[in-house]
Design brief:
Largest sheet: 8 strands, mixed
Order of helices and strands: HHHEHEHEHEHEEHHEHEHHHHEHHHHEEH
Shape: globular
Oligomer: single chain
Radius of gyration: 21 Å
Helix content: 40-55%
Length: 494
């Protein structure tokens, strides 16, 4: 039978599964279309770190069941393990160490019939808002290969935007679904804490701030994929109340008027590009035309304190991940990237009381957001503070890199503060993306919706943050916006 790439690209995952179920195409046909597209664009994009074509072809020939039977899929090379296959986490030392078991989320995706044929690129340990690992080199944005697709799910975003797959595995510990969704013109939903599984090897990621999810071109794909992914696991720490109806039902709802607070200023007090402000205000105008009430309002919280608390615990987490990788592989510190080594060194030097105090202050941020949600159904912000930026722009400047490497070799990493490296890492991590971490630290669901294009044609999404359990509301509103201003048909030139 076969299928052309144009026909393949014109369907989302739900649509492709319907073709297979109707006997119009086979799973093998779809897989070969995906592989051919990957072969055509991958040398330029570097979105896929590891190809699993042979295993996928074998699976596509066998019987497949589930709502996505026969649909090609990619999983992120971070915390989405496949037994017998390495999960490099964007790190060179881990690239040759197979995992002993399959992650629950990956098992649920394969039980739903998805055919996994590769692992997508991520920055080392998912620690940055760009995807430029030494392992495999920088991943590029299909809308402008000179620019970043964001991170840390940048490989998944680039692969979906380029039409390799209609949806791909992603995860979000500080914006890692929403940032690349905004940069690549995709829909991205970060589920709330405990909604999707993290195990069986860990109970929860980053003290519950990191969750598993997907990136997709259509809202309905994210909804149906959430239906097959969500739910507790025996090893998990939470049993989250399921929705009253399947998440897929939400995309067919016409939303009653919502009260939405609009905040465009950076919580850090840093600059926001006029295009990012325009993206949010344009969304507000569209929402108003659909009958919703939008008012300028922001949660009453200290954004710089939130960023500092985030990084305090983030650096400690990176130090633990580096220690774990060293124990597994026997490698030395110099096997890791300089930025990673700096973050790990800062984490090792953080006193335990400071780490615990930063965790405790999450409740202050949660209370501020909860008070906001007593007045508003959703918070609307830009997802990014600027359009997708050039590859390499957020790398440590050469003098700072040389100084950091010298201090690391000398074992004098305690001097990092005097060099201003901590401050430069704060700016590099958060100035372009100051809006997304709030939902992670508070455990709230949030989405990025691709409603806007810059004057040069780059995607620039907007973010919605909801109350606990508001995934159906976020999906319903995104679907309403998708009907009002469709985006899935838009294609980059790559």
């Amino acid at each position: 039978m076969g299928i052309s790439w144009d026909d393949y690209r014109s369907h989302d995952a739900v649509g492709l599964a319907a073709l297979v179920a109707a006997g119009e195409v086979s799973a093998a046909d779809l897989l070969e279309a995906a592989i051919a597209r990957a072969d055509a664009v991958e040398p330029g994009l570097s979105s896929i770190r590891l190809r699993l074509d042979d295993a996928a072809r074998s699976r596509a020939r066998g019987p497949l069941t589930g709502p996505f039977a026969g649909v090609p899929f990619l999983v992120k090379d971070l915390a989405q393990h496949i037994a017998g296959v390495p999960t490099a986490s964007g790190s060179r030392p881990l690239a040759d160490h197979p995992r002993p078991e399959t992650s629950t989320v990956v098992r649920r995706w394969t039980e739903a019939g998805l055919v996994v044929f590769g692992r997508t690129a991520t920055p080392e340990f998912g620690a940055r808002a760009v995807t430029e690992p030494a392992l495999g080199g920088p991943t590029r944005n299909p809308w402008d290969p000179g620019r970043t697709p964001g991170g840390s799910s940048g490989g998944s975003a680039a692969a979906v935007a380029a039409g390799i797959v209609p949806a791909a595995g992603a995860s979000d510990g500080g914006g890692s679904i929403r940032i690349p969704a905004a940069a690549c013109g995709l829909f991205g939903l970060k589920p709330g804490r405990g909604v999707t599984p993290s195990g069986p090897d860990v109970a929860e990621g980053f003290h519950g701030a990191a969750v598993q999810g997907v990136l997709s071109r259509t809202v309905r794909d994210s909804a149906v994929l959430l239906d097959v992914t969500a739910g507790p696991e025996p090893e998990g720490p939470y049993v989250v109340r399921p929705p009253e109806r399947p998440y897929a039902d939400a995309v067919r709802d016409d939303r009653a008027p919502l009260r939405i607070g609009l905040a465009t200023a950076s919580p850090l007090g840093t600059d926001v590009d006029p295009e990012a402000v325009a993206a949010a205000t344009d969304a507000a105008e569209l929402l108003t035309s659909l009958g919703h009430v939008v008012e300028e309002s922001a949660p009453a919280l200290d954004g710089r304190a939130l960023a500092t608390d985030f990084l305090t615990t983030w650096f400690s987490t990176i130090s633990a991940q580096v220690a774990s990788a060293r124990a597994l592989t026997g490698c030395g510190d110099d096997a890791f990237e300089t930025e990673t080594r700096v973050m790990a060194a800062i984490g090792r030097a953080t006193p335990a009381p400071d780490h615990l105090a930063a965790l405790a202050r999450r409740q202050d941020h949660t209370r501020a957001l909860a008070a906001f949600h007593e007045r508003y159904d959703l918070l609307l912000t830009p997802t990014l503070a600027r359009p997708p930026w050039p590859i390499g722009e957020l790398a440590l400047p050469a003098p700072a890199r040389i100084g950091a490497q010298a201090l690391l070799r000398a074992g004098a990493s305690g001097l990092f503060g005097r060099l201003g490296l901590v401050e430069s890492l704060v700016d590099a991590n958060f100035a372009p993306v100051p809006y997304t971490q709030l939902a992670n630290l508070t455990g709230r669901p949030a989405s990025s919706v691709p409603l806007y294009r810059t004057a040069t044609g780059l995607p620039l999404g907007v973010q919605f943050v909801g109350r606990p359990g508001s995934e159906p509301l976020l999906l319903a509103l995104a679907a309403q916006l998708e009907r009002a201003r469709p985006w899935a048909h838009l294609r980059p030139a790559v």
